Amino acid sequence: MHNSAMKSCMKLFFSTLVMAVALSPLPVYAVESVTPATNPPATVYVIPIQGVIERGLVYVVRRGIHQAIDQGASRIIFDMDTPGGRVDSAEDILQATAGLDIPTCTFVNPNAISAGAIIAMGTDAIYMAPHGRIGDAMPIAISPWGAPQPMPENLEEKTVSYVASLIRSAAQRKNHDPQLAEKMVRRETEYRIGDLVIAPSNQLLTLTSEEAERLVGPKDNQRPLLSSGTVRDIPALLKHLDLQDARVVTIEITPAEKMARYIEMMSILFLAGGLLALYAEFKTPGFGVFGFTGIILLAIWFWGHHIAGLAGLGELVLFLTGAILLGIEIFAIPGFGVTGITGITLILISILSAMVPSQPSIPYLPALPSTRYWQEALNTLGIAILTSGVLMFLLSRFLPYTPGFKHLSLDKTLPPSDGFTGAYTEPSMVGQHGVADTPLQPGGFGSFGNRRLSVISQGAFIEKGTAIEVAEVQGNRIVVHSVNG
């Protein structure tokens, strides 16, 4: 192995190791802000559901629920303000709340749109801030880059049917009106109570706080349409629930967790960018900006998934082991075999496993295998590889001709007629006999008299100690074959 290649490989490994250790500390847990109370009769946990609903948020919600259970909380309040998000993440939160013995309620403060409305239906009671809104839960398709895109008609009906059943099931479990819940997903049917039309056909249901708390039904048995009341803020809600003297524990999302949520949402960009930068580094001499960029992007990717509760240290160890094996295969072992395949396999497994959620109580271990999680991970990895592959092709095609790249390579022609040669040639070596000093697979070393030269076989593997003959000489490339055929 050339010294320069060895140095580049070692720099890549140690840089990756340092960045990984620096950016993947022990698990970071969200800070709890505790409102003190004198002899509190009860404990209330407030869990924020803020911003876009995605997998990083699921981990925070699960962790808050587990802590509430451990502390014997008397109520869990979801402080919600969301435009919606991933349906699968909303379903994960519904599953986390489904079997709870602790009463739950959602405080719509002020928006519970789309996936937020689905989660709200899975709690025992819904309260809303003034001018709050809840509803509009019809699913839409989102491209890998975050832009809405149309769905085929057959796929749209299948998706809408699934989400409608999901929100109906949540509503039935918590004694909310399932037909009202389904009207937030389906626009075709009319929703009415008696002679009162709540939402006409061809219109999705979205309720304001005033509309959601109005009384409906027979005069002798009226009930709120959806909301149990409109309150100004969390303290007002606690007073309404007769919990104003309770010990309140608010789960606060740390800046690291907030950043990790954005990293997880842009997972494909970080992953594809890291792979692309490392490819560019291997195509350029030495070790420089491309290598460090690739290391930083992948380190940030792993760190974000680690803080979001997706990746543990196990995935990081697998990735580094795979990178080491791949480096050994590329720079130290001629050809490509078991070591390289094992290295690539470990890297792919680590990346896939890093996108599968882990349990809050065991942050270093992935959750039990789930077809949905692994399928999503495969889709993300496939898109990242496809994206980086297209960009790699474009880079290999056009990068050498860019002004910034030209100074790294010599494009001046030095013809032999002017006295320049690329290497010393010795055509008289053709036909000389020697012995293979190392296995030739196909490169290695051979001895010819008192000279030990770098040689390459004509394609077949040649064992050490085999008699060889020089077949041709091309510059400093000496091609040999076995004397015994």
Write down the overall mean pLDDT: 79
Strand content bin:
15-25%
The termini sit apart by 28 Å
What does the main sheet amount to?
8 strands, mixed
Low-pLDDT segments, ≥5 res = 1-7, 16-32, 359-369
The helix content is 40-55%
CATH topology of the largest domain: 2-enoyl-CoA Hydratase, Chain A, domain 1
Compute the gyration radius: what is it?
Answer: 32 Å
Oligomer: single chain
Query: What sort of overall outline do the alpha carbons produce when their principal axes are compared?
Result: elongated
- Total of helices: 15
Output the CATH class name of the largest domain: Alpha Beta
Describe the structure.
This protein is an alpha/beta fold and 485 residues long. It has helices at residues 3-23, 55-70, 87-98, 115-121, 153-173, 178-183, 209-212, 234-240, 255-265, 267-282, 289-307, 313-331, 338-353, 371-398, 403-406; strands spanning 31-35, 43-50, 75-82, 104-113, 125-128, 133-135, 141-142, 148-149, 191-193, 196-199, 206-208, 215-216, 223-224, 247-252, 358-359, 362-366, 433-436, 443-448, 451-457, 467-474, 477-482. The chain has three domains: 3-25 and 259-405, no CATH class; 31-253, 2-enoyl-CoA Hydratase, Chain A, domain 1; 416-482, Nucleic acid-binding proteins (OB fold (Dihydrolipoamide Acetyltransferase, E2P), Beta Barrel). 43% of the residues lie in helices and 21% in strands. Strands 1, 2, 3, 4, 5, 6, 11 and 14 form an eight-stranded mixed beta sheet that branches.
